[in-house]
Amino acid sequence: MIITVLSGKGGTGKTTVATNLAWVLSQSRKVQLLDADVEEPNDHLFLPPQIEETEPVEMLLPQVDQKACIKCGKCAKVCQFGAISVFKTGVMVFDSLCHGCGACALVCPKNAITEVPKAIGEVKSGKVHERINFSMGILNIGEPSGVKVIRKLKEKIDPSADIVIVDAPPGTSCPVVEALRGSDFALLVTEPTPFGLHDLQMAVELVSEMGIKAGIVVNRDSRGYESVERFSEESDIPILMRIPYDPQIAELYSRGILFSSHLPQWKVEFERLFEKIREMVEA
Fold first, then answer.
1. How far is the C-alpha of 160 from the C-alpha of 157, rounded, in Å?
2. Do strands 163-167 and 2-6 pair parallel, antiparallel, or not at all (unpaired)?
């Protein structure tokens, strides 16, 4: 089963839920944790792995032979992202806009465009302990999109694992879609605030369009704000767990300690959360 943990925005506790769930389930199952928050991976701070392998992630960028180019403009016309412009003086490639699809090279009638590799990040893999395999993607600073890094990271999915947990990037853009692709369940982490509700609504729209079953975890729950409950009922996306605003949990988090490993009742709560997910997936 592949469970992707996501949130419409950052700072809601997505990492907290992903790492605690992975640790609790690993007490009796073979778990794989993939940190796909490639711009700011931090699962390894809570579940320190022994890194055994590092693989580069590259994309192909067009390189134009200005002498061979006849400035016909076909490359610029086929590019959906505006990454190539043709001027009287020559052709200019905007690396930050290029998605590396290679269409420009395919349509060039003079074979004036070749593709050269550029490193955009890496994937690190290893073990936390014998029942948690761990991989994380890291996007190089300044690169515009982590989609290729996430795609490379997901090639690491181990079909022999009992549970695969993917910690997705925040938001609802292309990297999140890539993280969600192929998932059996989306675990949506939110907070009981108007901002949290707004971004939860966008995340629900995304998983609904992708046809993925979903449930909600309310983090830093302090009650008094009932709009998340109303939205849950109206959208038929159940609230599966509430993590209260608790100074003890916050203090453990600040020290990089999983609260489920120090507060025994939470081991039971995360097991219950997984059972609810399993029932929804198998329904």
1. 9
2. parallel
Which amino acid is located at 185 in the chain?
F
Query: What's the per-residue H, E or C state across the chain?
Result: CEEEEECCCCCCCHHHHHHHHHHHHCCCCCEEEEECCCCCCCHHHCCCCEEEEEEEEEEEEEEECCCCCCCCCHHHHHCCCCCEEEECCEEEECHHHCCCCCHHHHHCCCCCEEEEEEEEEEEEEEEEECCEEEEEEEECCCCCCCHHHHHHHHCCCCCCCCEEEEECCCCCCHHHHHHHCCCCEEEEEECCCHHHHHHHHHHHHHHHHCCCEEEEEEEEECCCCCHHHHHHHHHCCCEEEEEECCHHHHHHHHCCCCHHHHCHHHHHHHHHHHHHHHHHHHC
Q: For 171-219, how does the pLDDT look when each residue is reduced to its tens digit (9 = 90+)?
A: 888 999 999 999 999 999 999 999 989 999 999 999 999 999 999 999 9
148 backbone φψ class: left, alpha, beta (φ>0; ψ -120 to 50): alpha
Q: What pTM was computed for the model?
A: 0.89
